[in-house]
Amino acid sequence: MEDFSFYPRYQKHIAKRILAIDFGTKVIGTAMYCPGMDPFPYIAEKIIYKSHTESIKTIKSIVENEGIDILVLGVPYYLDGKESDNTRRIKEFGEQLMTACPDQEFFEQDETLTTKAAEDRMKSSPQFNFKVDVTKIDCVAATIILEDFIKS
Question: How many CA atoms lie within 13 A of 93 on its CB side?
């Protein structure tokens, strides 16, 4: 695994619990990491999307149960950097999430192509038997969002 300790965001967020979110209208993947405590970001809970309200309620429960300090929401953009309808929908979700979790720091992280990167990671990993596991792909994408956040 990669050593994240020399990245400025790693240093800035030592001992803070971070929850990354890969928002989807069917499944929301999550990943967690605590720089200085955990060796690397890891897969967390998969949330079946029912509505913004229900999803935020579940995320808020995770925040409270896990003592989350920082929320990182993956936001997709077109390759040219422009926003899509999905980008705007996820940003709206993010605004509602910030309102529901006012004590946590909130960041948006570009998640362009993270699902493709998650597929590639699964295909090259014995952890997933070198196959794409569709039941975990959203959470693997969330770990990539979290890694990208620490590196940015």
Answer: 29
Q: Which residue has the tokens 């990491």?
A: 33
In the chain, the domains with their CATH numbers are: 8-151 (3.30.420.140)
The CA distance from 72 to 22, in Å, is: 9
The radius of gyration of the chain from alpha carbons, rounded to an integer in Å, stands at 15
* Cβ atoms of 38 and 16 closer than 8 Å: no
- Would the pTM of this model clear 0.90, i.e. be above it? yes
**Residues written for the chain:** 152
Between CA 122 and CA 140 the distance in angstroms is 8
Structure tokens at 17: 């619990």
Per residue in 67-124, pLDDT (tens digit) is 999 999 999 998 898 999 999 999 999 999 999 999 999 999 999 889 999 999 999 9
Burial zone of 31 (CB within 10 Å; 0-12 exposed, 13-18 middle, 19+ buried): buried
